Amino acid sequence: MSAGRVANPRVTRQRSYPLRATGTYVRGRTQISFAGDDSARSLLIGGVLVLLSPFVLPLLPLFGYYLRVVKAGIDGDETPPVFGEWVELSVDGLKAVVVSFVYFLVPLVFTLIGGIVIGVGAILAQERAVAGVATGIGVVGALFVFASLVTVLLATYVFPAALANMARSGDIADAFALSDVFGVAFSVEYLVAGLLGIAAVVLIGIMNTVLTVFTLGLFLLLAVFVQFYAQAVFFYLFGRGYANARGLQAK
């Protein structure tokens, strides 16, 4: 199932019920399982793509797959999508990469400006005559770095909502329908699912780091597969949050 072939489903409202485990309002299926031969194959391919992602091109099918995972989350489908229709998958991935670049452009600009300003301040600090000016420049640079951190967190939180809006319709323009995207992103349902997704990534990341250190790097190769799984869980939960915020029923 690819994002490009999905028609807009009818939007219906239903009452939210609290999960006893969390006391929060999350409806429907909230887990994705890589059990079974097809799912294991997807996990293997995904881990290899993560390993090869520094070569850039593997990012296209990888992001295309994440887009399909978001759609699975919207539909409440616990079975992970499979890697297939590679050209279409890569085209969808290219769309997702473009959306990612746009949403993370502001944090990138703040980071670059902050780095340049701090660098200039460090150079001027070597000259005693302008030490005061250098301090002021350093403060300005630090403010830009702080702004970059804040906007990175905001973009990380909002970006999956943009992907979900695009995955549901198949139209990249819907990723930039800001009233819809921010309307979902600042709902309680999306917030709860998003926090669960972020917590999953953080906890799995810590586990990866600890195991890699204690095995003297031997776990590093397996870590890419765990990282892929964590990202799949992340996007799936955000997809569920999007569906809950829009009142969409699981299929």
From TrEMBL:
Keywords: Membrane, Transmembrane, Transmembrane helix. The chain crosses the membrane at residues 43-67, 101-125, 137-162, 182-206, 213-238. InterPro entries: DUF4013. This is DUF4013 domain-containing protein. It comes from Halosegnis rubeus.
